[in-house]
Amino acid sequence: MSSETTTGLSKVEVIKIDQERIGEAAVEYVPAETEFRILVNNEVETSLHCAPHRVKSLVVGWLVGEGVIDQEDDFVAIDTDLESLDIRVTVSDEAAQRLATRVFTVPVGKLSEPEFPRRVTTELELTPEQVIEMSGRFRKLFLGLRSSDRMCYLAAFAQNGEIQSYGEGFHRINAMYRALGELVIAGVAPNNRIALANFGLTQQMTLRLARAGVCMAICAAPPSNAAIEVANDYYLCVVSTAIGSQLTVYSAPWRVI
């Protein structure tokens, strides 16, 4: 079997087997995964495994999730080199200082998760019917995407019943970063927004949502126990719609009235 890579997708030869167990050769497009190094102001910070499409929103979302930037004005420029697989990012001096003050722990290169102030208010509350309606809109968004864009995972952000941005990816964290990046690039702060995802949340993802100021996450699968603990600490309500029209509220239950 061979493959031919195009922008964001890779054409591969596959064998399709029907119910009679008859196999036929076919061609299919799958996400093209590449490891990119991210350099911020010429310093290597991390690497991301991703498809080489919508790179700007992915990187901006990563910066927001890491607490480096709050708005697009902190983000100056990006240059993607597809040959060296480097993404060179330039941020403001203030954002660079925030990046430099992050604490590193063992093993070398692994970031710790320092405490950060709670950024959400206590005002947003939704009825169960509003949560179910938002979940339905999110599902329609996913089903309405072109098949080439419909990767395994989808995340989105919404306010007042309207979906404002979305991001897809074959890694859950990349889908979330892209959705965050698209929101901020559009000039919308993520504070007190509603996140939607067709997956469950891990501790890492919940920390990044809380750091961005998100107040509610409507998910299609349960979160981890560590994610629930973080969510309660930061007043982040996590709701799962995994079973029909039944809602399961895991944290900050007072947001669902």
Task: Jot down its keywords.
257 residues, six-stranded mixed beta sheet, globular, alpha+beta, four-stranded mixed beta sheet, 27% helix, Cytidine Deaminase, domain 2, 34% strand, Ubiquitin-like (UB roll), 3 domains, disordered N terminus
- Write down how many β-strands occur, each being a DSSP E stretch of 2 or more residues: 15
Number of self-contained structural domains = 3
Sheet having the most strands: 6 strands, mixed
The fraction of residues in strands falls at 25-35%
Q: What is the level-2 CATH architecture name of the largest domain?
A: 3-Layer(aba) Sandwich
Q: Span from first to last CA? A: 54 Å
Find the CATH topology of the largest domain: Cytidine Deaminase, domain 2
Q: CATH-wise, what's the superfamily of the largest domain?
A: Cytidine Deaminase, domain 2
Q: Which overall shape is indicated by the principal axes computed on the Cα atoms?
A: globular
What's the CATH class label of the largest domain? Alpha Beta
Helix-strand sequence: EEEEEHEEHEEHEEHEHEHEE
Cα radius of gyration in angstroms = 19 Å
Percent range of helical residues:
25-40%
Description:
By secondary structure, this protein is α+β, with helices and mostly antiparallel strands. It folds into three domains: 32 residues, no CATH class; 78 residues, Ubiquitin-like (UB roll); 128 residues, Cytidine Deaminase, domain 2, CATH 3.40.140.10. Helix content is 27%, strand content 34%. The protein has six helices and 15 strands. It has a six-stranded mixed beta sheet with strand order 11-10-12-13-14-15, with helices on both faces. Helix 5 links the parallel strand 12 and strand 13. Helix 1 crosses helix 4 and helix 5 packs parallel to helix 6. The longest helix has 17 residues. The relative contact order is 0.13. The N terminus is likely disordered.
